[in-house]
Specification:
Helix content: 40-55%
CATH topology of the largest domain: Aspartate Aminotransferase, domain 2
Keywords: Iron, Iron-sulfur, Metal-binding, Pyridoxal phosphate, Transferase
Number of domains: 2
Oligomer: single chain
Family: Belongs to the class-V pyridoxal-phosphate-dependent aminotransferase family. NifS/IscS subfamily.
Strand order of the largest sheet: 2-8-7-6-5-3-4
Catalytic activity: (sulfur carrier)-H + L-cysteine = (sulfur carrier)-SH + L-alanine
Bound molecules: pyridoxal-5'-phosphate
Structural class: alpha/beta
Number of helices: 12
Protein name: cysteine desulfurase
CATH class of the largest domain: Alpha Beta
Largest sheet: 7 strands, mixed
CATH architecture of the largest domain: 3-Layer(aba) Sandwich
CATH superfamily of the largest domain: Type I PLP-dependent aspartate aminotransferase-like (Major domain)
Organism: Subtercola vilae
């Protein structure tokens, strides 16, 4: 099988699994326990938090471990909005992940927040000038994703954060897809909150983290034993936190070489697909895009039908985000980027990473040509 769905999830790296193992077996203590087993778990958790904080340019006390990207996004958006001393207005984008969009909608329905959406261009990027024109110091929160999960476009997050900082409105960025590829240094980016998830970069599913800058008030969503400095009650998943820290260390050490290698692979793949498949269009930004992301619209075919053909040929990819997989609704990201619904339904996304090879992508490009050809001939 050629796995080209790394944006949906990645396998756990062997080193990560090995680092986690002791905390699932011999050192299984609860970090809140005062005996030696508990203390060992607490030390491992503290070490993991300090390492994650280093990648974020943060203090350890600004890092909250969560059950993944969805929870980190929920905690950021709802927690900051409900903890905010002023305002009832959130500015976001129409291309966010559902974890952000649905959190905003919850705040609208249950807490009377007004939600405004920045426009995006045909490549799925926002215009910082629009944020500058629309943002005021009475606003509560800005939430703009770092990189999009469907089309791979990277947002000018540092520029947006500078605009928000000038009027003292906190800015959150969903860095779930950026993690592993782009710097997560929240201080350098100037963001007040940043969320990411382990399973996109070789840590297990079900772990993530949220950075929130120290002075930003955060209302917890989970109430209970007061773990994570009260920001997120619940016995900590020590092994997963250890795994997340190591996955980040490994990704950071490999980032430059991997980004260069994978960008070259991606550009080769995109070129091949555009050459082989008539009327194929690359979606997302041609330059400001994640190294491992190649997404297309193939005129006149159903993206889902192409996926089935590709899987028969041993190539696994997706038609959009994993959350929307199997739905016959057009992608909200492509609609927001101005694609007509019938064209958005032709989308296919290929995402790859550390394990993808040139041979895989050459074989995949041939398979794409055959799959689109087969679906088109059936449609005629
Ligand atoms: N945000 C983005 C941009 C994502 O791509 C995803 C998952 O695909 C999430 C949030 C949710 O993360 P998780 O799967 O860890 O809940």
């Amino acid at each position: 099988m050629i796995y080209l769905d790394a944006a949906a999830t990645t396998p756990v790296r062997r080193e990560v699994l090995e680092a986690m193992w002791p905390y699932l077996t011999g050192d299984f203590g609860n970090p809140s326990s005062t005996h030696s087993l508990g203390e060992r778990a607490a030390r491992a958790l503290a070490d993991a938090r300090a390492r994650v904080a280093r990648h974020l340019g943060a203090r350890a006390s600004e890092v909250t471990f969560t059950s993944g990207g969805t929870e980190a996004d929920n905690l950021a958006v709802k927690g900051i909005a409900l903890g905010a001393p002023r305002g009832r207005h959130i500015i976001t984008t129409p291309i966010e992940h559902e974890a952000v969009l649905e959190s905003c909608d919850y705040l609208r329905r249950h807490h009377g927040f007004r939600i405004s959406f920045l426009g995006v261009d045909h490549t799925g990027r926002v215009d910082p000038d629009e944020l500058a024109a629309r943002l005021s110091s009475d606003d509560t929160l800005v939430s703009v994703m770092y990189a999009n999960n469907e089309v791979g476009s990277i947002q000018p997050v540092a520029e947006l954060a500078a605009i928000a900082r000038a009027v003292k409105v906190p800015l959150h960025t969903d860095a779930v897809q950026a993690a592993g590829w782009l710097t997560l240094d929240a201080r350098a980016l100037g963001v007040d909150a940043l969320s990411f998830s382990g399973h996109k970069l070789g840590a297990p599913k079900g772990v993530g983290a949220l950075f929130v800058r120290g002075r930003v008030p955060l209302e917890p969503l989970m109430h209970g034993g007061g773990q994570e400095r009260g920001a997120r009650s619940g016995t900590e998943n020590v092994a997963a936190a250890v795994g997340l820290a190591l996955a980040l260390d490994l990704a950071a050490a490999e980032r430059e070489t991997q980004a260069a290698r994978v960008t070259a692979l991606r550009d080769g793949f995109v070129g091949e697909v555009l050459r082989r498949v008539p009327e194929a269009e690359l979606t997302g930004h041609p330059v400001h895009r994640l190294p491992g992301s190649a997404s297309f619209c193939f005129d006149g075919v159903s993206g889902e039908a192409v996926l089935l053909e590709l899987e028969r040929a041993g190539v696994v990819c997706s038609s959009g985000s994993a959350c929307a997989a199997g739905s016959d609704e057009p992608s909200h990201v492509l609609l927001a980027a101005g694609f007509p619904p019938e064209r958005a339904l032709t989308a296919v996304r290929f995402t790859f990473g550390g394990e993808s090879t040139e041979a895989d992508l050459a074989a995949a490009a041939t398979a794409v040509e055959a799959a689109v050809g087969a679906v088109r001939s059936l449609a005629r």
